[in-house]
Design brief:
Blueprint: E1 2-12, H1 17-34, E2 42-49, H2 58-64, E3 73-78, E4 89-99, E5 107-109
Helix pairs in contact: 1-2
Length: about 120
């Protein structure tokens, strides 16, 4: 039996199309692989970005990487501009169906590990 989960992740990137696409693609692929998630079990993908990331919409970057090309609902929003927030950051939440006994893995990488050190795995930069 499956149930609805919310997978979280974040990555830092430079504000250029190439790096945004690269970092989002790596984060997304790692979320899929570490959770044994097939894209057909994804309900929605919601990105948030800090105001200093504006070279490309993260949803467009994900599609440019060859992911989310079917019926996945993608959405992007801008993070609130808060004092001392981590710059150059893209966050994601993926609503998906996994086996009900799944132990989900959240991915914080490329400098974003500081956001949730309690959830970050030892990821290659």
């Amino acid at each position: 039996m499956k149930r609805l989960f919310a997978l979280r992740g974040a990555t830092q990137c430079e504000n250029n199309i190439e790096d945004i696409c690269l970092q989002i693609g790596l984060m997304y692929k790692e979320l899929l692989n570490s959770n044994k998630l097939e894209e057909e079990n994804i309900v929605s993908v919601i990105f948030s970005v800090t105001s200093d990331i504006n070279a490309i919409n993260p949803a467009a970057a994900l599609r440019r990487c060859g992911y989310a090309t079917k019926d996945e609902a993608l959405f992007s929003v801008q993070e609130p501009d808060c004092v001392n927030c981590l710059e150059r950051t893209v966050r994601v939440i993926i609503h998906c169906y996994l086996d009900e006994d799944s132990k989900v893995q959240h991915i914080y990488r490329n400098g974003a590990e500081v956001l949730r050190q309690d959830r970050a795995m030892n990821n290659e930069q």
